[in-house]
Specification:
mainly beta; 7% helix; globular; 407 residues; single chain; 18-stranded antiparallel barrel
Length: 407
């Protein structure tokens, strides 16, 4: 199917979804349907995340470290509120083309459809289905092949009010991960997880929740390591506290602190147990300035392709400044430490496991010359130091994007 045909199909499907919303939705509550389209340019000076002085192999058709890419997208979203329910959806179709390395060209379809339901005054929840597609960074895929990573998730979160301030929660999530590159197909994943908890909710919507989560992950494609076939399946248990408080209208604190235990039947020497979580603080200093401060320690990420889990410790700050009604400046700075404890090669052979230190900095300027128009110019810098040979790199990229929205 051609690009114009895909875009036309996406818009038609979104329009049909809006037309098929329950009868009477417009009369019962607010609704919205928007379509956005945009184009962008991005120049990456070290596309393959190579060490200083190293060039790509000549077999790729070029030896330049950098490349210019352009992309075009269309996004269709709807939201309708029949009574106390909320039906919402967002579909995004994009295509990206490279000037030199055309084998990296790709199309992606991202979207979510969700029902925020409510039954009487005691029961509520969200049922959603989501797909995310992206090309894996060459910081994670250590070869010169394109990998399109597709994540699909079916999620159900449910809540019941049992006392004036106390709620019981229960949920399920089913996640699949697929990789188009056969060299990382062992990272394809199927995970099913269930959680249950109890939540204390105040009249100001601050809350504290204690929850237990049990997950089982299965990798359909077995991995061959050190002469043996490795089954990478795992069982994971998280016992955690979720906390939210907005002390003032200008400040909000969100936290999740947990104890995580992951067990690997095939290679118990790579089992993990320890504290995980994230703490996020949003603060609006004035009506025009503010920042987000984030601390996190997490295990496992679906985009990590070298191993089936990585312990990531990171701190980041993201300030913003609205210079005028039409111009906004955003920045961010993050330091990461990534420990590849789940690497079967390390567990099976005793070789030193990979440990990386990454720095990422971003700066962007958003200009909205009119209500429907948005233009964004951006700069990004990243660098990595690793205990493994050949993985150190530094990189800069520059981008320019324009978007128009119909509503």
């Amino acid at each position: 199917m051609s690009i114009p045909t895909r875009i036309a199909t996406l818009v038609a499907l979104a329009s049909a979804a809006s037309a098929l919303l329950p009868a009477g939705a417009e009369a019962d509550g607010p609704h919205a349907f928007t379509v956005s389209t945009g184009v962008g340019l991005n120049y990456d000076e070290n596309l393959f995340r190579l060490p200083s002085g190293q060039s790509p192999p000549s077999g790729l058709g070029a030896t330049s470290r950098g490349d210019l890419a352009w992309n075009v997208f269309v996004d269709a979203a709807f939201r309708v509120e029949p009574g106390r329910q909320v039906l919402r959806g967002d579909l995004n179709l994009a295509t990206t083309r490279y000037a030199r390395y055309s084998f990296l060209n790709y199309q992606s379809l991202n979207g979510i459809v969700a029902d925020d339901w409510r039954l009487g005054g005691l029961f509520s929840g969200t049922l959603s289905y989501e797909q995310r597609q992206s090309v894996s960074s060459f910081a994670d895929v250590h070869n010169f092949q394109r990998n399109l990573n597709t994540v699909r998730a079916l999620t159900a979160d449910n809540e019941a009010w049992v006392l004036p301030d106390w709620h019981v929660t229960a949920g399920y999530s089913g996640t699949t991960v697929e990789n188009s590159n056969s060299s990382v197909s062992s990272s394809n994943l199927q995970e099913n997880a269930f959680d249950a908890g109890i939540k204390y909710l105040t009249s100001r919507n601050n809350y504290l929740r204690l929850a237990l989560r049990e997950a089982r992950g299965r990798y359909p494609n077995a991995e061959f390591v050190a002469g043996s076939i490795i089954d990478n399946r795992y069982d994971q248990t998280d016992i955690g506290l979720d906390y939210y408080q907005a002390p003032t209208g200008a400040s909000a604190l969100t936290a999740r602190i947990a104890y995580t235990s992951r067990r690997s039947p095939e290679l118990p020497q790579r089992d993990f147990s320890g504290p995980t979580g994230r703490i996020s603080w949003d603060y609006a200093a004035t009506g025009k300035t503010g920042f987000n401060l984030l601390l996190r320690r997490e295990i496992g990420a679906y985009t990590d392709l070298v191993t089936n889990y990585v312990v990531t410790e990171a701190v980041s700050i993201a300030p913003y400044w609205r210079l005028t009604a039409k111009v906004r400046l955003d920045g961010s700075y993050e330091r990461q430490r990534r420990d590849y404890r789940g690497d079967p090669q390390f567990a099976a052979t005793g070789q030193p496991r990979e440990v990386d230190l990454l720095t990422l900095a971003r700066l962007s300027v958003t200009y909205e010359p009119a209500r429907r128009w948005r233009v964004v110019a951006g700069w990004q810098y990243s660098t990595r130091s690793s205990n493994q040979n050949g993985l150190n790199f530094s990189d800069q990229s520059f981008s320019l994007n324009a978007q128009y929205t119909w509503d």
